[in-house]
Amino acid sequence: MAGSERTVVWFRRDLRIDDNPALASAARDGAVLPVFIWCPADEGQFYPGRCSRWWLKQSLPHLSQSLESLGCPLVLIRAESTLEALLRCIDSVGATRLVYNHLYDPVSLVRDDKIKKELSALGISIQSFNGDLLYEPWEIYDDSGLAFTTFNMYWEKCMELPIDVSPSLAPWKLVPVPGLESVRSCSVDDLGLESSKDEESSNALLRRAWSPGWRNAEKMLEEFVSHGLLEYSKHGMKVEGATTSLLSPYLHFGEVSVRKVYQLVRMQQIKWENEGTSEAEESIHFFMRSIGLREYSRYLCFNFPFTHEKSLLGNLKHYPWKVDEERFKSWRQGMTGYPLVDAGMRELWATGWTHNRIRVIISSFAVKFLLIPWTWGMKYFWDVLLDADLESDILGWQYISGSLPDGHELSRLDNPEIMENVIATYYALCMVQGQKYDPDGVYVRTWIPELARMPTEWIHHPWDAPSCILEVAGVELGFNYPKPIVDLHIARECLDDSISTMWQLDTAEKLAELDGEVVEDNLSNIKTFDIPKVVLRETSPCALPIDQRVPHASSKDHNLKSKVLKASNRSSICVDMIRSSKMEATSSVANSPVSRKRSFCETAFHVPSYSSSAEVHSHIQDHGGSLVGPSRYLLQEAGRNCVDEVEDSSTADSGSSISRQRKAA
């Protein structure tokens, strides 16, 4: 029987009825006031991006409808202060208790701690629950009581512990608190999640591919476990099409619990074992590892709350990142001259989504080819991803930048011979990896219409193609598709220089400590910045990316200031310090097991593509050795007919933009 307590249930990123510990506890103990508070001021520099806010706007009515069917509507509040909004709710209904589910990102940790202290001091009972993880971060430590800093050791420790995968039962009825009518609730539109009509127009595209809401999340999970999990390890290597679970945005907004995901996957695993389906073992392993990485991202943020702005490894704080706005802009535009990278960036910008393999490739390119600060890339991902998840973004970018002990190639900076192979590795990334993840070039052709007619053997490295191949494909490097913005050999030299500088700075710091001096983290002098809002009126994979504006910074802001640190032996070491710069994720759940994600472009180029150079030469011979007449006209017009108008709404934020071609008649 329910108690007599009046409880405010504070919804955040747990927008579901099923397996919601906070809601279940409140429903058992008495009357309930469900509240969602939208407070942009609390988000700070991590204000959610357009795609993320669109998802939230669609999910809240879904949750509200479900709560209302149980007897208690969801109260929506837009506030300048979350604490003040909670206090008003508590006072209005005479509540004596506040419940919520844990969050682990740096912003939420600070806010939740403050609210807990303030309300506890006023005599309000505060209770929080684990609604997001299999293991709480404070439950997993090594034998010395220290936090793990490598994923494998962390996950091995987790697998040794029992998992409580019994989901909290959804309440069958909710009792509304007396005086509910005295709490002012606004509509979802009044929350301001879509700041303009232009954003609404842009977001209309997202409805073709996604259906937010906790019931849709459960359908998506069941479909994946039944039809996608068995071949997850094999299909997960392909970047074209829907080859992943597509659960990340649902997990981020808490529309499905990780406990339920784990439970269904384990049940399916037992079923396959009984049936003797041995090929499922690898897929289960890879999928559970991805769940483990999500757990680990929360674990790192909780135990090392500075990781959203600083590298975990100490020596990497001296790494001399390049404050290069133009290269950062080219990377964001998908105009680097490396097709697989460009295709990934254009898909990311147009849809708010891209395959995890592509995320690794494009982030690696930014950090290791362009030496762009990983914090810039992390912030850009946060602003444009539909499934933007701060903890996962932090883990991904720290890993790629070599900022973790078990990170990517940069974790081996202590071995110059190994680092010399990094450039070669990323040269292979553009060709070998392209052939591995996009063997037929379908993905590149979908998102880079300029290369639609390139033969498959050249599609991932057009700069190596003979001039006759480029001519028949209608590709003019440097004109309608950029040449590579960075030369491989120059990138190698820059990387070597950066490594050398890093170790000099590391040595300088150790010597300076003997004299009581402190050497700053280079990243602390590179300010984060706001990515301008980009409005997409009509788009398709064929649309070229807009200039998403890089704020102007004067050249003097990029100067490196030399600082001499005197060691105890009186030797001098010149330290280059980087000074500050002014830079400031289906219209319904898939209807069939095969159709998992809607295409954002129903049609692409209707011009022939070539699978080999022989076909190209044959075409040239058929036209007398050159392209004339209709063939040349077709190549010229194909690109124009596939470019939709794209417009940037925040013109006041910058003085530069790229004009876009309108769709030809």
UniProtKB/TrEMBL annotation:
Family from the record: Belongs to the DNA photolyase class-1 family.
Q: Which cofactors are reported in the record for this sequence?
A: (6R)-5,10-methylene-5,6,7,8-tetrahydrofolate; FAD
MF (Gene Ontology):
ATP binding; blue light photoreceptor activity; deoxyribodipyrimidine photo-lyase activity; DNA binding; FAD binding; protein homodimerization activity
Can you tell me which residues bind FAD?
Y232, T244, S245, L246, L247, S248, F287, D387, A388, D389
Q: Which organism is it from?
A: Oryza sativa subsp. indica
Where does the record place the Photolyase/cryptochrome alpha/beta domain?
A: 5-134
Q: What is this protein called?
A: Photolyase/cryptochrome alpha/beta domain-containing protein
- Keyword Flavoprotein belongs to the record: yes
Q: Which Pfam families match?
A: DNA_photolyase, FAD_binding_7
Keywords attached to this Swiss-Prot or TrEMBL record, sorted alphabetically, are: Chromophore, FAD, Flavoprotein
